[in-house]
Structures are given as C-alpha cells and as structure tokens.
Amino acid sequence: MNTGAIWQALIDRLDQMQEAGQSADFWLRDDDAVEPTAALHRLLELTDRFSVPLTLAVIPAHTDARLERCLAGRRDIGVAVHGWSHENHAPAGEKRQELGGHRPSGTVSEELRTGYARLRALFPTSFVPLLVPPWNRIDAEVVAGLGAIGFRALSVFGPEASGKAAALIRPGLQIINTHVDVIDWRGSRGCRDHAQIVRDVLARLEQVAKGGGSVGILTHHLVHDENVWAFLSKLFEITATHPASRWRKVSDLIGR
C-alpha cells in the first residue's frame, strides 16, 4: 500500500467512525524538553497552526526560566514531569532506566518530589501532575509512592490494557499512555516509514473502538528529521478538522 493509500485508509476509518456516531481522542506527548531551541519553536508553530494541544515532558533538573518564558501565554501547552535528570542508573547490559530498582526507592521518590515541585513552581499555569518516566520505564515500587508526591497520572508507551501496563496501576493513579512512536530508534533514528506509522494509528483506533481510551502520539522534537515534520503536518491536517477525531489536552484526560 502506497503512502497516499494509507492516508486515505485513515480518512476512511474516521469517516466510518463518524457514520457510527463514534469519535477518538488524540493527544500529543513530546519528550525531553529543557530549553527553547529551533526545533521546539518549530513544534510549537506546527501545533499552533492546527490548534493541536501539546504535552511537553520536561526534564526538571536541566530546565529553567528560559523555557517558562518561551511557553508563557500558550494555553494549549501542558508541562509534565520527565523524571528528574534523565540519567541512566542501570548497569551495563541492562536497558536504560532512571526510575528503576537500582537505587533505594526513597532516593528516587525524593528526586521526583523535587522535580514535581520545581516544575509546578516554574510553570504554574501549564503544569500537569503527570509523570513521564525516561525511556518509558519505571519500577513498581516507585509507582507505589507517586500518589503521595501529588502525581495523578503516569504515561509510558503501549496499550493500557497490556499486562505490563496493568502492573503499574495503583488506586488514584491513572495510566494515560502513548501508543504510536514516530522515531525509528532501533534503525535509522530518523522518521519511521509513514505508512507503518499510520498503520499503528489505525490499529490503535481499533483498540479504542473496542475498549475506549485515547490515541497517544509520541515525538521527540530534538531528533526530528524532515520526514517527521512532514508526517506530523499531514496527520494534523487530516485529524484536526475531522468530526470523528479530537485533539485533547492531557489535563482533560486526567480524571476522566
């Protein structure tokens, strides 16, 4: 199936949902924000053009008032806590992880508490009580203490109904994951094939139709190539105005 045909398949599926009286909520999570950059400004301009709300997962240890000034007055921006310093504490040979079981859980929790307070103070109008673990990995013992810090939601990658995600569920803590990643991390580290990304969107729409939830799109503005920007522009063009799709602030999804 060529790229044009796969985009048409997305339009057709949304048309079918509209005819059935159904709709899907989309949300956009972009990781690793620290400071204003050309790439961040490009992302802000693109989302603003299509009125797509944006959730920025910000690294607390490395950000400052420059990012706050950059985001000031933007009502469709949410700021989530992206760990503390995005530092790997796993030993060589293991998958990278900052919020794992390699350190005392109290140490990890105290870092998260500091990061939560720092971002809430820096971004008082856009802060959301959402934790985005670096590399989408977090130890269950750390999850158990998130509510006491003030977190109301956790976002990793993959279907919320999977066994891996189910293991993270705690009373009062909502799981709001991303489901479609645009980056080919294990290959070119550029944009994945557009047709394959759209297939992932279509697969997630089927899951939503059967079991509810949202379609979470995951991006990393600092490593986007031109193909990523082209993909996002086309995706927003189709979905931002279609009656069967709605781009939502993550704050609207928390507690829903």
From TrEMBL:
For this protein, the record's Gene3D superfamilies field holds: Glycoside hydrolase/deacetylase
Q: Where is the composition biased (Basic and acidic residues)?
A: 88-101
Q: Does the keyword Cytoplasm apply?
A: no
Q: Which InterPro entries match?
A: CE4_u4-like, Glyco_hydro/deAcase_b/a-brl
Q: Which residues form a coiled coil?
A: none
Q: Which GO terms describe its biological process?
A: carbohydrate metabolic process
Keyword annotations: Plasmid
Q: Where is this region: Disordered?
A: 88-107
Protein biosynthesis as a keyword? no
Q: What is this protein called?
A: Polysaccharide deacetylase
Q: What is the scientific name of the source organism? A: Sinorhizobium fredii (strain NBRC 101917 / NGR234)
